[in-house]
Amino acid sequence: MRILVCGGAGYIGSNMTAMLAAEGHEPVVFDNLSRGHRSAVCQAEFIKGDLADHELLVKTLKKYEIEAVMHFAALIEVADSVQRPLKYYQNNVCNTQNLLSAMEAAGVEKFVFSSSAAVYGMPTEIPVTEESKGAPINPYGETKYAVERMCHHQSQTRRLRYVSLRYFNAAGAGNKCRLGEDHRPESHLIPLTIQAAMGKRDEIKVYGTDYPTPDGTCIRDYIHIEDLCRAHLLALKQLDRHWELAYNLGNGRGYSVREVISAVKKVSGKDFKVTDTDRRPGDPPVLTSYATKAKNELGWRPQLPDLEEIVATAWQWHNQYPDGYPD
I need a surface site. Which of 70, 167, 298, 299 has the fewest CB within 10 A? Predict the structure, then answer.
């Protein structure tokens, strides 16, 4: 298939693009490079463009005879979304509406949406299932939930077939460890901890040590980036027969902050300063997922569920690119 990958120069988008090409698809990357990296895009046509540009979107969809769209071009920083909510609504909601409108104009039906476990907010039942109530607690989560609702209503017109993939914590490096995590600024625990192990960060902070968990720190569900991308390929096939779908993507088990720090120390062979500090507002103690629905309906199984294996791929990438991508 000819697939437009919006945000294809970012962490998940670049890994998805590489996997699409390896599987014989024809990915076309559309990215404004505000967060992505041109050098992370390989084996694909590249268009520098913004999702606010309706005319360019329609032109691109028609020129390349696009058959499906994968959307990874969201702003993702929860704390930043609290400080600048309008920026997040503009990029994550308004620009996605513009993309869907361009798809409608070009006659493109299939849409794979990069959603988030943030749509569940502070779930009352753990592990989370797809039937858990959507109740986001920050602007970032609200924007993801708003797009899901927008897609639902558009699908009722029978002009859109979509699947929402609700990620937990994507991690590791893919494409033989050539494509890794390079957010600027970085806010994800595994790359931050690796930076501390490399001496590029003075310490790693643990936000809250008094949660009702075995070691007092938050527990999260980590999924290797290639397992995540593989689920996208399987979900895309489902859109031949369905108008709307939603799947949680996680390993189904969680690791605490202290367990992540221990895994990085073991993989790297390095010690570093760890500082305990106060909780951050809005952090649920535990956020893990049942991926039963994806396993049953997609035939999906995580191939790299072990935390140390995930960390090892990330460690290899960070050592290849200690300062991030060269661009």
Answer: 299
Q: Is-contact 223 249, C-beta < 8 A?
A: yes
Read off the CATH number of the domain in which 11 is found: 3.40.50.720
Of the candidates 11, 120, 140, 222, the residue annotated as catalytic is 140
Considering the domain architecture, whether residues 234 and 286 belong to the same structural domain is answered as no
Pick left, alpha or beta for residue 216 (phi over 0 → left; psi -120 to 50 → alpha; otherwise beta): left
pLDDT in tens, 240-292: 999 999 999 988 889 999 999 999 999 999 999 999 999 987 678 888 888 89
Whether 167 is catalytic: no
Per-residue HEC secondary structure of the chain comes to CEEEEECCCCHHHHHHHHHHHHCCCEEEEEECCCCCCHHHCCCCEEEECCCCCHHHHHHHHHHCCCCEEEECCCCCCHHHHHHCHHHHHHHHHHHHHHHHHHHHHHCCCEEEEEEEHHHHCCCCCCCECCCCCCCCCCHHHHHHHHHHHHHHHHHCCCCCEEEEEEECEEECCECCCCECCCCCCCCCHHHHHHHHHCCCCCCEEEECCCCCCCCCCCEECEEEHHHHHHHHHHHHHHCCCCCEEEEEECCCCCEEHHHHHHHHHHHHCCCCCEEEECCCCCCCCEECECCHHHHHHHCCCCCCCCHHHHHHHHHHHHHHCCCCCCC
Q: Is residue 327 part of a domain?
A: no
The answer to whether 118 touches 143, Cβ cutoff 8 Å, is: no
pTM of the model: 0.95
My answer on whether 35 and 47 are in the same domain is yes
Closest CA to 30 of 67, 62, 1, 3: 3
